[in-house]
Specification:
Elements lengths: L9 E4 L7 H6 L3 E7 L4 H6 L8 E12 L5 E16 L6 E15 L2 H8 L5 E4 L6 H12 L20 H6 L8 H11 L1
Parallel strand pairs: 1-2, 5-6
Antiparallel strand pairs: 2-3, 3-4, 4-5
């Protein structure tokens, strides 16, 4: 059986590859790369198809740690940096939102173990795999790092912040007063 060696430091322009989590942690390897937003379908949906050529930088570091009972556990340190072109919800203008991820993940054997230990664990738990989807984790973490309401810290000057156009009122035809017809009848009957 051919097993990929993770011993070399690799930096390249690429999408994060699938990882054999245990081998990656045992070798204490670091992989990093630079990708584009266009390779992440959900990020492109979030940006409404804009900024596909913008860079997304990622790095993954594996390591083994010994727990309290002496068993070794696989850990992954993930960092991601990206800029997403979103719409400011205050001024409705374009806003470049920076996202930075810096998280540790501990790997466990099964989903049942992860669910049982999740409430007591301070770190995030993931299920170990020989084909772990690192690109999916990168995309998940960027999405979770986005603000709920994207907006500028301070909206650019010169943007209209009014909810109506002053000329709108002038363009409307003059509506007759509802009692004008009654006034005509009344004055016509007295004359």
């Amino acid at each position: 059986m051919l097993r990929f060696s993770y011993t070399a430091l690799m930096t390249q322009d690429c999408t994060p590859p699938p990882l054999d989590v245990q081998a990656f942690a045992e070798a204490a390897t670091r992989r990093e790369g630079r990708d584009t937003l266009s390779n992440y379908e959900r990020l492109m949906q979030e940006t409404q198809g804009l900024g596909g050529d913008l860079p997304l930088s990622w790095a993954a570091q594996g390591e083994l740690r010994t727990d309290a009972i002496g068993a070794s556990q696989a850990w992954l340190h993930l960092t991601v940096a990206a800029r997403l072109p979103l719409t400011c919800q205050r001024c409705l203008g374009p806003a470049d939102i920076q996202v930075a991820v810096d998280r540790w993940f501990r790997f466990v054997a099964t989903e049942a173990v992860a669910e049982a230990a999740d409430d007591d664990a301070e770190e995030d738990l993931l299920v170990t795999s020989r084909q772990f989807n690192l690109a999916g984790l990168v995309e998940d973490e960027v999405l979770m790092g986005l603000p709920l309401v994207p907006r500028h810290d301070q909206c650019p000057p010169g943007l209209t912040m009014a909810v109506s156009d002053p000329g709108f009122e002038a363009a409307q035809p003059e509506k007759p007063h509802p009692f004008a017809a009654l006034a005509k009848l009344r004055s016509g009957g007295q004359g």
